[in-house]
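Repro case for the chain-ordering regression, as requested:
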Amino acid sequence: MYEIIRKEKLNESVELMEIRAPYVARRCEAGQFIILIVEEDGERIPLTIADYDRERQTVTIIYQVVGYSTKRLSEKKPGDAVQDFVGPLGHPAPLKKVKRVLGIGGGVGIAPIYPQLKKLKSMDVEVDVILGGRDKDYIILDQEMQVVCDHVYYATNDGSKGIKGFVTDKLNQLIEAGEAYDMVIAIGPLIMMQAVCEITRKYNIETNVSLNPIMIDGTGMCGGCRVTVGGETKFACVDGPDFNGHLVDFKEAMNRQKMFVEEEDHICRMALAAQNITHEGEGK
Amino acid sequence: MINKSTVKTPVHEQEPNIRNGNFKEVVLGYTSHEAMEEAGRCLQCRHRPCVSGCPVGVPIPEFVHEVAEGHFEAAYKIITRENSLPAICGRVCPQESQCEGKCVRGLKGEPVAIGRLERFVADWHMKNTEEAIVQTANEEMPKIAVVGSGPAGLTCASELVKKGYRVTIFEALHKTGGVLSYGIPEFRLPKRLVADEIENVKKLGVRINTNVLIGRSITVDELIEEEYQAVFIGSGAGLPKFLNIPGENLNGVYSANEFLTRVNLMKAYEKSAKTPVKIGKNVAVVGGGNVAMDAARTAKRLGAENVYIVYRRSEEELPARVEEVHHAKEEGIIFRLLNNPVGITGENGFVRGMSCIRMELGEPDASGRRRPVVIPGSEFELDVQTVIMAIGQNPNPLIRQTTQGLKTQSWGGIIVEESTMATSKENVYAGGDVVTGAATVILAMGAGKKAAAAIHEKLTNQ
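-- result from build under test --
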């Protein structure tokens, strides 16, 4: 069992947990992920590592409460424990010392981009970031980003923070204003990462994305997470999760996300009904 | 008195048309009376050819003799001197090519049903004997790390702990057993049995740390530097192969590993399961080994109407155990032999069909089997909504990528010195599928046992 040390609600649907996991904390790096199981016979949930503390032997995860399993996770309190927690999985993000990097985080994707930018900052790279979300409440880790980034920009659908529009609108603005970046790291919904890549391809800016497809074991065993990169099939869990975004077949990746939509919705409804938990219509 | 029957005493099985709708065990096993009757067929030959066919050297005539006499517990003691997982081996060993393949009774008629007898003895013991296993691990003895809790790792660990070593098994998944848990289905190997056998290994004093992925959570090099005198790698062959044909990434194409893991390990066949599995009306399973049979029979049980085994060679070359092929046919699995998939077609991102081409057998190839050759112009489309690739697995690359000085084959298998299972790296041993590529439970156990003996000898002489 893995103890929950700290829990914070970041907005109405996104939460943070710091969990004691010595084997993960001792050698994890930015870009890697973990898999956790909330309770006996639960789903294996992959989550990218949002932060870690080697001395405290803890790993921080940030998740959106979207279905049955994350709902069960959300019911846990500090002092409680999760059944299983394995990692670090995948390769560390391929970060290199360049002059200037732009991070782009969308929604809960802001969480995994944070350790990458923090690491780059420690390598003396100039770091800017665009944070995007539905409204200002969906902009998470704002203070942390202020600490590691030279400039923090915002884009919200309703304009309640930063520009009204998408992160890609802000990206276009920055490029048109003459800001030069050696590299872009984009993490968020597939559709956002694809849109970012379309722009950066035009300007020939190297762009990394982090993929979080459907997977079971996260160790290369099931192949459920396969993704086409540069015309070759890769397993996101062992070959990634970070890839050159200009080579990723996003159309296929988006299609593969739909594999179990009906089944998951069914499981969610059945399980919640069985426990008399109200289903708030969250889709997954 | 020798039982002169030329055929094996029949064993009770669930009716094919009932069992293909449930996940309960297919073979029900012998009664005491049937077991004694079958044991009476053994000639007790002096030269014991059956024993030479057993990768772990179970003293077969001795235990069969005790069964014939009705001394079942004595039989159990004899088997477990050499084999720590008899309930499992009795069910999944390819006896026809091992012990039973060498049985003298097989020259005229059927061999003695050694597998069924082993299973009977193990089951009888579990049901009738309260296990009083005493911990054998000794605090003064060296520490050994075992990577993987499948058959190779479990056997190596239990052999070493019996000699007093302090053994820790590291398992990457949340459940123990490796392929015994995620791969082989419940209807062929009930998970309760696997759990019981692993519980026995734990009672001897073996520690099992789940959720530790060697190569990521900690490396083999670190294990040796930090606390262990020797490491045994039994991490299996878990990386699924695909055919690299068009359409393989459509929704509805699974590796057999993914499909079986969803169903077996994550229990997707139960109504309350949280991990889903989706199955079409018609299902094609590509491949002809035991894993292909398991996947096909599982698909049938999940409600598929038509399940095809699509295999590019003929029946004779099917690598699966004879019993598995027989059971699959009884359950209504349709064999499309000498058919080779060339592409998978889709609609809205989901599988709609699989294009195949017919083959015929040509000259023998390097494996000695006749090479399948394409019949030009024989393409046809199979109407399926699910495709399961069961064409083999390679070892996971993680350990070889993260262990200094570990020599491997071009396909990823760890190279070992055959008599000791020692790798190119000092004090690191390996065995099972990670060395041989996907093979059998019993060969993995044999390798684990051999490595344990070599580790003991090395550490004793140091």
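Ordering looks correct now. The longest strand of chain B covers residues 350-364.
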